[in-house]
Automatic annotation (TrEMBL):
GO CC list: plasma membrane
Presence of keyword Transmembrane: yes
Compartments, as annotated in UniProt: Membrane
Keyword Cell cycle among UniProt keywords: no
InterPro entries the UniProt entry points to: Na/Glc_symporter_sf, Na/solute_symporter, Na/solute_symporter_CS, Na/solute_symporter_VC_2705, Sodium:Solute_Symporter
GO BP term, pick one: sodium ion transport
Protein known as: Cation/acetate symporter
Main location: membrane
Transmembrane segments: 6-25, 46-68, 74-94, 115-133, 153-170, 182-204, 246-268, 280-300, 392-421, 441-459, 465-489, 501-522, 542-563
Amino acid sequence: MSQFWINFIFVVGSFVIYTWIAVWARARTTREFYIAGGEVNPVMNGAATAADWLSAASFISVAGLISIGYVNSAFIMGWTGGYVLLATLLAPYLRRFGSYTVPDFVGKRYASKTARVVAVLCLVVISLTYVIGQMTGAGVAFARFLEVESSTGLIISALVVFFYAVLGGMKGVTYTQVAQYIVLILAFTIPAVYLSLMMTGHFLPQTGLFGEHTASGMPLLQKLNEVVRDLGFQDYTADVSNKWNMFLFTLTLMVGTAGLPHVIIRFFTVPNIQDARWSAAWALVFIALFYTTVPALAAMSRLNLIETIYPNGTKAAPLVYEERPEWVKNWEHTGLLKFEDKNGDGRIQFYNDANKELTTNAEWAKDWKGNELTVNNDILVLALPEIANMPAWIIGLIAAGGIAAALSTASGLLMAISSAVSHDLLKNTLMPHLTEQKEMLYARIAMVGAIVVATWLGLNPPGFAAQTVALAFGMAASSIFPALVLGIFSTRINSKGAIAGMLAGSLATVTYIFMYLGWFFIPGTNSFPNTPEHWILGISPLSVGCIGAAINIAVSVIVSLATEDTTEETKDMVRHVRYP
């Protein structure tokens, strides 16, 4: 059987499962549509939360980022730490409050429609930013593994999400995400185990990372450091130069991810506060299973890639282009891997040509005209089974896993947008007399609208897609997270303080990002070059979200203290959430 049909069976088979679940778990009431009836088992909800959390960025991109070196471990520390913040500071109390959505909590806690609308706007900006990457990621996976145009793959993905999200609501999304977690974790860990056994003899990738590289007899990390150093790259285990910025970046990822609305809403779906705690614990277990595998997979994948290009070692001649393996040809078609024979010798020169010391002093690089192979880090995981000559069924499995990761998070984000529009903007602000039947109808219409917008953005991604990731984390960190934490832990913060804080924190964060990445991300409009020497106090645009959060908290406190006190009813509400 050809590889195409194997991939087809895995991908379509997973879609059949998702569709069957959607039919079985279709929502019949608004409570089932918004929070799955509040009756999800904590273990199941933990798996669904993990699937919501582990987006296409986690599945496809994180290993590629960390393959560059230890410096990018901030992504894992920040995202995992953010979940711990969410699980301890927010989840149990939000579940006890009993709201359907994040803006619902903000609107009720601060007794303000304006605060609710501001929260809705922040939620929509954050979620739409995130969903661009999910839909685009699904399109890339389809383009490679089912040999269709990425736009065709994206539309297929949108139709699948449309069916199970519109029909099933949060109930359908929850049980579909459980299946998607199983698919994505198997798709990620099986190739990692295979590669670990192949390169180190260790069954567990987590121990293989610190084991011996079988072919050389050296410790794996030492061998990796040696080969990347030979090619002019930074050591894999090299320390980060700007620890201050790394600390702030990690903190921004933590508070930003803890404020992501599509994950917060998951804790409203369990029966009680104790189940919310157990749900958080199980989700952390499922997330840890994935993230502890990532560093090992990243290191081994990079070493495996380099050994493919330099089969006789980095001091010998590299691979002849015409003798390149099939996986190189396959990924060249996607545009994510490119070769340019700059010196015309027919071999693939892969090295860091920005390293002037190497290109000046290394005898073997004298006749080279520059790096000839461009490898997008996002392909490391998806291409891994082909690079390592794994069985064909593993390639099919990883195809289904990459698509599952994209769809699970996309459905959660679309659900968050739909709920915010129908429940918070319409039912609780503009059209308070909506019946439950009408609210369900508008919820489904809002979901359709969100899917259409997300699909359009996926088909026409803005040129600034990478920059908007910074905007998403910055907005979540500087707007939603402080409003939730202050609303839970302080009886004194009033609506004026919360609104002023959200606006001030968001404005400061967005302004700083625009200063370096361009105003509204329009190329050439940035006020300063995005380089370390121009950053204020050494803070990069990616790291400013936690500063925005601090500004939000400070403004919220100052404005609240300068204006009227909260009512006794609000104080009692907060005390009930904290001390039932």
